[in-house]
Amino acid sequence: MGHTRLGTLPKTRKWNELLKHIARPRLPGNVADTAANDVNAIAARTLSASRKALVKAARDPGVGYTFYLLTQVALASRTSDWETALVQHGIRLSGDSTIFDLSVELQAAIDRYLLRTQPGATDLSEMAQQSAGEAILSLSGLQTANLFGGSSADVKKAIRSLSTKMGFGKLGQKFFGRFIARFLNFYLSRATAATLGSARVQSLGDIAEFNKALELHCDQSARIVRDFCGEWYSKTEHEKGIELSDASKFIAVAVKKVGKELELQREEL
To answer: Is 195 part of any domain?
Structure first.
């Protein structure tokens, strides 16, 4: 991203403890296994050290708008003319558009919204945009003929499976899992860089293995909000329709839930 709007790596006791944990001597055996065993401890310590920034995430307009657009894309797939429904939110697809095109258009629509309403995108909103794109691609990409082929009708069919209570719950879990992983990695990338060459982090390959384990860990931790997402989406749309303010309020609660789950894992260590 090239920016450090969330601040530089703090020199506090919490961060010192985190660095020691990352840099401690590696146990014999496979690197990936070691990373998987340690990732919950490191993720929880990182979350604790960056707690103030996580509170900002819950209030970030770009994060809220990104989640709002996810709800609107899902709902658009339930209409007879979904391309017209998407245009209302600045997302333009043609007859031969792919799931990749939808992901690109979604992120472009968020950029345009932020240019109109905010000084610009923050690191947090960029993390949310990327997480939304990844969530859509990972859950619906396999249902289309090809990421770079197919049609708008194929994309609509794939997204339609995510527009139910259960489907949107899965989409929400994937979004929050990827977002929290990116959030933690924003800080951890600087912490691991500071320990690169140590006994624990000997090479860039070690960091790549750890990042993979972190992503999986956060996806699994976000299971705590899967049913919550689906129920909120279904109930809110049925009762009054989902507005941006509804999505923004939901984000604050959901982020807190995932954060609490990671904190509880720390307490169990």
So the answer is: yes
Q: For the chain, which ranges sit under pLDDT 50?
A: 1-16, 18-19, 23, 25-37, 145, 194-201, 269
Q: How far is CA 184 from CA 11, 33, 44, 53, in A?
A: 17, 20, 9, 10
Residue 54: give the domain boundaries: 13-58+179-223+247-267
Residues 30 and 80 in one domain: no
- Could you tell me if residue 97 is left (phi over 0), alpha (psi between -120 and 50 degrees) or otherwise beta? beta
- The structure's pTM equals 0.80
* Backbone phi, psi, residue 36, to 5°: -65, -35
Does some domain include residue 112?
yes
Assess whether 43 and 107 both reside in one domain: no
Q: Distance between CA atoms of 130 and 110, rounded to whole angstroms?
A: 11
Q: For the segment 85-132, what is each residue's pLDDT rounded down to a tens digit?
A: 999 999 999 999 999 899 999 999 999 999 999 887 888 999 999 999
